[in-house]
Amino acid sequence: MKRLLLLLCALVSFSTFSAPKSDLWPYWKQSNEANQNQISHQEWQQLIDTYLVEQGENTLFRYNKVSSTHKATLKQYIQRLAKLDPLQYKQAEQYAYWVNLYNAITVKLILDNYPVESITKLGGLFSFGPWGEDVVVINGKSLTLNDIEHRILRPIWNDPRTHYAVNCASLGCPNLQTLAFTADNTQALLDNAAKHSSTAKGVSVQGNTAQLSSIYEWFANDFGGEKQLFNHISKYAPQYKNFSGKVTYEYDWSLNQAQ
After folding, report:
1. DSSP label at residue 132
2. CB-based contacts of 189, cutoff 8 Å, min separation 6
3. How many other C-beta atoms can be found within 10 angstroms of the C-beta atom of residue 58?
4. Each residue's pLDDT tens digit in the chain (259 positions)?
5. What are the residue ranges spanned by the domains of the chain?
6. CA nearest 90: which of 183, 24, 156?
7. Are 145 and 17 in contact (CB under 8 A)?
């Protein structure tokens, strides 16, 4: 009976999953463009260099190899960012700050619960993943991963490439980048991520049928609307510019772990 209840809960959670809408949290739409100081992401880069590996079209994280020292480093990195006031920095610094913070917290959530088959197993009994749970306090305000992505990054920058930057620790997700985001490299990283996700990682065409990552379905409006998806995709994969066939969507929630 208990087993059946858990199964039903899982099915309900999955069936009710829907992508949050972009919903600006006005407090965070402030910046100090005169501030030329840079935020260091050295600790995060160190973890990426040590544990992220490229295999085929994926970058995979060696969660099972992370040392206790590096777990402490990750925790300290997140705590250091949380003590900063991002509003005192220019917008370019803020974007890198939020993306790196999101990705670092996601990796920490997996490590805190490892081994786990999928990030969707985290969260409460009736939750589909941990995205709605408070994970960090900044400027005295509790934030969830959903807040960072859907109430800060998406509505403030209005850049569809943000969907290629934030990583949900899943094979279906655009890859975790091999470089930490900085104000200087953000545009190049976003373009590279978009190119990769618009080809082998997120788009597959066989004959008159295109299989796309579900990200293009969940966030179609960010990419110009469902009918305009291939206008966006063809910016990074010109071979798909005139595609007008059938479109299906798929997403793999399996953990992005290296064996």
Report:
1. T
2. 165, 177, 179, 181
3. 16
4. 434 433 344 444 444 457 999 999 999 999 999 999 999 999 999 999 999 999 999 999 999 999 999 999 999 999 999 999 999 999 999 999 999 999 999 999 999 999 999 999 998 777 899 999 999 999 999 999 999 999 999 999 999 999 999 999 999 999 999 999 999 999 999 999 999 999 879 999 999 999 999 999 999 999 999 999 999 999 999 999 999 999 999 999 999 999 7
5. 22-250
6. 183
7. no
